[in-house]
Amino acid sequence: PAVVPPAAAQAAPAATVSPSAPAATVSPSAPAATPSTPAATVSPSAPAATPSTPAATPTSSGTTPTNASDPAWVTPEVQAQYEALNCSDPNLDLKVTDDPKKPLVTCSTDRAAKYILGPAELEGQDIADATSGLQPNQAGGTGTEYGVNLTLTGDGGKKFADLSKRLLNLPPPRNQFASVLDGEVIVAPRITVPILDGRSSITGSFNATSSEALAQQLKFGALPMSFRVETQDTVSPTLGADQLSKGLLAGAIGFVLVMLYALVQYRALGLVTVASLIMAAALTYLCITLLGWSQNFRLSMAGVTGLILSIGMTADSFIVYFERVRDEIREGRSIPAAVEAGWQRAKGTVVISDAVNLIAAVVLYLLASSNVRGFAYTLGLTTIIDVIIVFFFTHPMLALLSRTRFFGQGHKLSGFDPGALGAKPARYIGRGRFRDPDAELEALDAERAAARQREGSYTKEGGAVL
C-alpha cells in the first residue's frame, strides 16, 4: 500500500487494473511511475517485502496508523527524507536492506520517480509464479499487448485480495502498490478492480524484452535464498607473492633433483634429459606468457603445482625411451641401430601414457572447482608439450649423438656402454656365421617394406600383381 504525504501527492501514472478471463488482471501504467513535477509519485509497498501488520507507531501528532496505506506513517522525519532524496544523483546507492515493518523512501530503478512506501504486506515468497507474454484481448483471442502474469500462493492471494479492495477506494496515487527489489521500485501499478483469486496480470508500455525482465525479477527475486559463509580466506598481496615464490622455488628444487638423478643414472646421456627439460620449460613459459597476453590466463598456486608435477612426467618419458634403447643394446645391436629400434618400441608407450594424463586433465578441468581447474589446465598443457619435446627434440638429438664417436662407440661415461649394460656377445650360428642383430633388424625392416609394397601392388581385379 502507498502512503503519500498530502503536500507531495500527485497524479498516478496512466495505468489500470482490469479483470481478464479466466482471472482478474492488474494493469499498471509502466514498469515505473514517471512524475510530471519534481514532487514524485508515492506508491505502496511491494510484493517483494515481508508481509506484516506493523505495531502501531504514533506520528508526531499522536495519530496511530490503522493500516499500511494510512498517511499517518508520514512523520516529519519521513517527509524530510523524501524531500532530501535526489533520485537524479549519479552516486546515489539505494541497494540497502530495508525494514519491511517501517515506511521506505526510495526511487524507481530508472530514477524517474521517488516514493514514500508504507510497510510491506506481501513478501516475495507469496509469489508462486511470474510469466510474460501477449495478453488476451476483449474477444478472447491473443492480443498485441505484452504483460506479466502473476500467480500468488493461497495465503498471498488472500492478502492481495484485502490489499486490492482497500486500494481500490483510495485516490491516485495512493491506489498504487509497488514491487521493491534491493531497495528500489521495479514496478508500481495501480488497482482499479479488486483481485480476489490470486491471479493477475500487469500490463502497460511493455515489450517482449521488458516484460520478460520484469517477470524474472518478480519470480527469481522472490526466491527465499540466503547465503552463509562456510569458509573465508584473506590473502594479502605480500602473502600471495610469498606463496608463489615458494612454489616456484619448490619447482626449481625438483628440477635440480631430476637433473642430478639423470646424470647419476645415465651419465652423459643425462645431459639429453637436462637439455630436453630446459626446452620443455622454455616452451611452457612461452605458452603461459602467450595465454596470459591473449586469454588473460593467470598462474595460481594450483597451476604451479601442475607445473612441478610435469617435471617428473616429462622425465618419465625420457626414461622410457632410454631404457628401450638400452634393452636393444643388451640384445647386441649397435648403438645407432639400438636408438632407432628403441624409439620404435618406446614412442607408442610415451603416447599412450601422455594420452591417459591428458584425458585425466580434461575430466578434472570439466568437473572440478575453479581452484583445481588451474592444476588441470597446466597439467594438460605440459602433457602436450611433453609429446612435442620427445618427438621433435629428444629423439632427433639422441639419433644425432648416436653417430658420434663418444656415444656411438659406447664410451663408459656415455650411458651406452655395452659392457656395463651386459650386452650379449656375438653368437656362432653355424657355417662360419655369427648372429648379427643389426643385420637381423635391417632384414626385418626390408621384409616389412616389401610387404607394404606387395599390398599396394594388388588391384581389385582378381588380385593380379602388376
TrEMBL record:
Signal peptide feature range: 1-23
Q: Which superkingdom does the taxonomy of this entry point to?
A: Bacteria
Among its keywords, does the record have Lyase? Answer: no
Query: What is the predominant subcellular site recorded for this chain?
Result: membrane
Q: Which residues cross the membrane?
A: 247-264, 271-293, 299-322, 350-368, 374-393
Q: Which gene encodes it?
A: secD
What's this protein's name?
A: Protein translocase subunit SecD
Task: Give the record's membrane topology.
Answer: Multi-pass membrane protein
- Residue ranges, annotated region (Disordered): 1-71
HAMAP family, per the entry: SecD_B
Q: GO terms for biological process?
A: intracellular protein transport
- Identify the species of origin: Arsenicicoccus cauae
User: Lipid metabolism: present as a keyword of the record?
Assistant: no
PANTHER family (UniProt xref): PROTEIN TRANSLOCASE SUBUNIT SECD, PROTEIN-EXPORT MEMBRANE PROTEIN SEC
Q: Which UniProt keywords apply?
A: Cell membrane, Membrane, Protein transport, Signal, Translocation, Transmembrane, Transmembrane helix, Transport
